[in-house]
Structure formats: C-alpha cells, structure tokens
Amino acid sequence: MGDWRLEVFRLSVHDVFFPVGIFWYFNQPDYFEEHVKKRREERLKLYSNPEYRREVEEFAERMRKRQAERNEKG
C-alpha cells in the first residue's frame, strides 16, 4: 500500500484527468467531422436504397407479428 500521495495521484489520474481527456478528445471538431458525419452520410445513403428499406420494413413486420404472438400466449 502506498501513502496518501499515491492515493492523491491515483485519484487525479482516474477521476479527473482521464475523463476530462476523453471528453476533450471526442469533442474535437476534427473528430466529429471525420467520424460522425461520415457515418451519418453512409447511413442516409443506405436507407435511401429502396431494397434496403423494403428489407427493414419486412423485418419490422416480422418482429411485430412475433411480439403479438408472444403477448397472446402469455
């Protein structure tokens, strides 16, 4: 076991600097532009595809039917 100085160091690293560093990194405009906007554009392109939309709607309908069957049983 260490003394109080080690505990103060650990507290500062684990509870202060690490969360602040992560918050700072992921809220940078460059990171947002590079990753988030790119992913959003990919999803919008994919969802605008009529075949993909049809598959998603069919899947949602199957899930609704399955849930309705489970609700009737129990």
From TrEMBL:
**Principal place where this protein is found?**
membrane
One cellular component term (GO) for this entry is: mitochondrial inner membrane
Q: Where found in the cell?
A: Membrane; Mitochondrion membrane
Alphabetical keyword list: Membrane, Mitochondrion, Transit peptide, Transmembrane, Transmembrane helix
Q: Which domain of life is it from?
A: Eukaryota
Show the InterPro entries listed in the entry. Answer: Pet100 (IPR018625)
Q: Does the keyword Transit peptide apply?
A: yes
Where does the signal sequence lie? Answer: none
UniProt-recorded Gene Ontology molecular function terms: unfolded protein binding
Its GO biological process annotations read: mitochondrial respiratory chain complex IV assembly
How does the record classify its membrane topology?
Single-pass membrane protein
What family does the Swiss-Prot or TrEMBL record give for this protein?
Belongs to the PET100 family.
Question: What is the protein name for this chain?
Answer: Protein PET100 homolog, mitochondrial-like
**Phylogenetic placement of the source organism:** Eukaryota, Metazoa, Chordata, Cephalochordata, Leptocardii
From the UniProt record, report the name of the gene that encodes this protein. Answer: LOC109464910
